[in-house]
Amino acid sequence: MALEWEAGDQDGFAYRAVRLWPTDSDPVEPLAEHDSGAYRSTLTLRFDETD
Fold first, then answer.
1. pLDDT tens for residues 3-34?
2. Are 25 and 19 in contact (CB under 8 A)?
């Protein structure tokens, strides 16, 4: 897995993950920021096809 991170205090830790993606693929660009101030999270699962 590849990880993009940034410095910032979160839950007592000095760093936080920004993006995580499989090393054999390109990272997906994040969605445009919204100014609502509300928390937002997404998760995309892709399963390998089975024979």
1. 888 998 878 889 888 888 888 888 877 666 65
2. no
